[in-house]
From TrEMBL:
GO terms for cellular component: recycling endosome. Signal peptide: none annotated. GO terms for molecular function: guanyl-nucleotide exchange factor activity. PROSITE patterns: DENN. It comes from Sesamum radiatum (Black benniseed). This is Protein DENND6A.
Length: 567
């Protein structure tokens, strides 16, 4: 594993790390080594003291695969990149995103004939589009020059501008530059410290420019990961929308976290409030709680990505289980080999063929294989890995075959396949963005800011936003229908999906965030109207009582402005 000769660093930067600025992007950089006798050990953590002892232990356990999932050639060096989330203790942010690069170096002088190390970037923010390429630079640099690499990278990162959600940024690193799109603020958890203060997302409107990300993990390989389960994406979209617990099984950590990221990206632009763990291990403190759930108890809303098949037995009551990926894949940015949908045409595993999709709705082979998979259950993965979905959930939304027919068959060429995946991802992401946007559209009136009318005084308090009552909303929605876009894509029981959404884990945080943004926008509109008002002209039209009321209102607004001012 060698560093590109075009990449260079400036050693004098090592003493110029601004830790406060660094924290805007990164909490810490860690180097973790697997010791044969002591297990996972943190060799280096920069800046020092960034983590508590319990956090160090949790990070070290999560930085290596939970089980052997990759075949290694003893004469080569293998690496993979994945990311995970853990809870922080006694910190304002509840969860951290941690991209990790594992490198295995073979050395016959060592007991196991080699060593495993993990290079980890810890961050408050889910900026995987930034940290993945940064890790691809930092990992080789560390193995070239050692711990000094952490100081060098930290120095560059501390000089980056403040992250602005939803914007494209260019971040210099050495003589290279990372040009990336950051996810929008409306998709970030509130504990990230960002609050959306624009009206850009007050009403659910489909954006014309999809190069601007509309949610988390906009760069995930949705098509490559779920190409064997494309017909199931609409069912999975509903499960995510209503906040159901889902267990993702994959052969390797990179495939696992890519699958979780792809699912989370499906519901953009909705604020996804369900706890998701791109890579979850038996060492996570949450595992003991989940494992102790009594028979018949409901799982908390969460998405768990795992490679350890022990979870199939430990969490056997998980209501929805998805198996993705191929055991043969071994890359940091993998492309899943197609096995076809469960029940696909026997022997047709040499390439993905769109033409087969139309025949997978119902065939004798489909039916028999589906019955066999359902009968065997997810425990069949203990003997052979298969791509499948196990759930009793009956979806309301029908798979859109017109979208599936637009997907491009990449054939057998890896280079062509990578290019076609980009096109296919755009097709799928635009469709599900449009689907989610139309689903959320009926809530638009509850986020509509009011402007002062000509007959009213801008110094009066603005009227409250329309109050929301779930039963009244459902009654009104049932009377007027879901709209043309959803009507032809959903079955007659489409109201059930709205009921589940209202009772699910995603609705209230999303609704409250949107209301807060709308109220903030309304405050701005009324403040602008007050600034533009000719007070002398307005007074001429007022009665004495109205003048007194306006004076009191102006005084109240001025006091509010003074209290809010930092000066």
């Amino acid at each position: 594993m060698s560093r590109s000769p075009s990449f260079s660093v400036k050693p004098e930067l090592a003493s110029e790390v601004d830790e406060k600025s660094l924290l805007q992007w990164v909490v810490a950089f860690c180097i973790i080594r697997f010791d044969l006798e002591q297990g996972q050990l943190i060799e280096e953590c920069y800046p020092p003291g960034s983590l508590t002892q319990s956090e160090e232990l949790e990070v070290s356990f999560s930085s290596f695969p939970d089980s052997v999932s990759q075949n290694h050639n003893r004469s080569s060096i293998h690496d993979c990149i994945f990311f995970f989330r853990i809870k922080r203790h006694n910190a304002p942010d509840s969860l951290n995103i941690k991209p990790s690069e594992i490198v295995e170096r073979h050395d016959e002088r060592l007991k196991r004939g080699g060593e495993q190390k993990s290079v980890v970037i810890l961050s408050h923010s889910p900026y995987t589009s930034v940290f993945r390429p940064l890790l691809q630079i930092m990992g080789p640099l560390y193995f070239d020059i050692g711990n000094k690499a952490l100081n060098y990278i930290a120095a560059y990162v501390s000089k980056w501008p403040v992250p602005v959600p939803g914007q494209q940024v260019e971040l210099p690193i050495g003589n290279a530059s990372l040009k990336v799109n950051l996810p929008p603020s409306h998709s970030l958890p509130s504990d990230n410290g960002f609050f959306e203060d624009s009206a850009s997302s007050l009403a659910p409107l489909l954006p014309s420019n999809l190069s601007i990300p509309q949610g988390l993990f906009h760069d995930s390989d949705l098509f490559g990961t779920f190409r064997g389960l494309l017909m199931q994406l609409w069912k999975l979209w509903e499960l995510l929308l209503v906040g159901e617990p889902i267990l993702i099984i994959a052969p390797t950590p990179p495939q696992c976290c890519e699958a979780v990221a792809g699912l989370v990206s499906l519901v953009a632009p909705l604020l996804f409030s369900v706890d998701f763990r791109p890579y979850f291990t038996i060492h996570d403190p949450e595992f003991a709680k989940l494992n102790s759930l009594q028979e018949g108890s409901s799982f908390p809303p969460m998405i768990l990505g795992v490679t350890n098949l022990f979870f199939l037995k430990a969490l056997r009551n998980m209501p929805h289980i998805v198996s993705v990926g191929s055991p043969m894949s071994n890359s940091s940015r993998f492309t899943v080999g197609s096995k076809g949908l469960p029940g696909g045409i026997p022997g047709q595993n040499e390439g993905f063929s769109i033409q087969h999709l139309s025949f997978r709705k119902f065939t004798p082979a489909n039916f028999l294989n589906a019955v066999k998979l359902r009968r065997d259950g997810p425990l069949c993965l203990m003997t052979e890995h298969k791509e499948a979905v196990w759930t009793n959930y009956a979806a309301v939304t029908k798979p859109d075959t017109s979208i599936l027919n637009r997907l491009i068959d990449a054939g057998l060429s890896p280079r062509v396949e990578e290019s076609m995946s980009v096109v296919n991802n755009d097709i799928l992401r635009r469709h599900f963005l449009e689907l989610t946007t139309n689903f959320l559209a009926p809530f638009g009136p509850y986020f509509r800011a009011n402007t002062p009318s000509e007959a009213s005084s801008p110094f009066a308090d603005p009227p409250p936003l329309p109050s929301f009552n779930a039963e009244e909303f459902l009654t009104s929605l049932s009377a007027r229908g879901p709209g043309k876009f959803l009507q032809k894509r959903m079955r007659s029981n489409w109201m059930d999906l709205y009921r589940r959404f209202l009772n699910g884990h995603n609705f209230l945080p999303w609704f409250q965030r949107k209301r807060a943004v709308a109220e903030q926008e309304q405050y701005k509109l009324w403040r602008q109207a007050r600034v533009k008002t000719n007070i002398h002209q307005l007074i001429r039209t007022m009665s004495e009582l109205e003048i007194v009321d306006s004076f009191n209102a102006i005084e109240r607004h001025l006091q509010g402005e003074m209290q809010a001012s930092p000066f």
